Amino acid sequence: MLIPIGYILFYITLLLLCAIISIFIHEIFHFIFFKYAGLVITELRIFIFSWRFENNTVKFRFFNGLSGGSCSCVINSQSPKNRLYLAIIMGGLGNLIFALMLSCFYFIIDDTTSSVWRFIEVQILVCIIDVFYNLLNPKSDDWKLLKYVHEMKKVRR
C-alpha cells in the first residue's frame, strides 16, 4: 500500500514550518537574555533573514544562503559569567518552555484528526530535539560557547 503524495508533502511542509518556529524561538530567547546580560548584539539571523545592529540602527537584509540561525554578540571579560551562562542555555530552554506550553493545548483539543493536532505534535517533537541537541551535544554552537565562557578569564582593572 502506497502512502499518498499529498500526505508526505503535508508532513514535509509541517516539519519545515516547525523547524523555522523552533529556530526562531531559540534565537529570540538568546537575543533577550544576551541583552539581559548587557552584551552588544551585532546580528540576529534566522534562516534567510538577517538583522544587523550597527550604530543604534537596525539593518534588515536577506542572507545569501540557507542557515539555521545565530545571535552574534560581543562577549567581553567584564560580563558576569552567571548571566552569560543563562543567556546561552536559554535558547534550548526557551524551546522546552514552548513545548510545555503547547502540550497544554495538546490536551485541550478534542479532534485528534485535525491539522492543528498534528502541528502541535510535530512542534513539540522538534522543540524537544532542539533542547537535546543544543544542551547535550558537545558539538553544538551553544555547547562551544559555554566552554568558551567557562574558560574565559576575568580581567582586573
Which SSEs are present, and which pair or pack?
Blueprint: H1 5-36, E1 40-46, E2 49-54, E3 57-62, E4 69-74, H2 81-108, H3 115-136, H4 141-151
Antiparallel strand pairs: 1-2, 1-4, 2-3
Helix pairs in contact: 1-2, 1-3, 2-3, 2-4
What does this structure look like?
With 157 residues, this protein is α+β, with helices and mostly antiparallel strands. It is 59% helix and 16% strand. The chain contains 4 helices and 4 strands, in the order H-E-E-E-E-H-H-H. The chain has one domain (15-150). A 4-stranded antiparallel sheet has the order 3-2-1-4, with helices on one face. It is globular, with a radius of gyration of 18 Å. The relative contact order is 0.15.
Outline of this structure?
The protein is an alpha+beta fold and 157 residues long. It has helices spanning 5-36, 81-108, 115-136, 141-151, and strands at 40-46, 49-54, 57-62, 69-74. The protein has a four-stranded antiparallel beta sheet, covered by helices on one side.
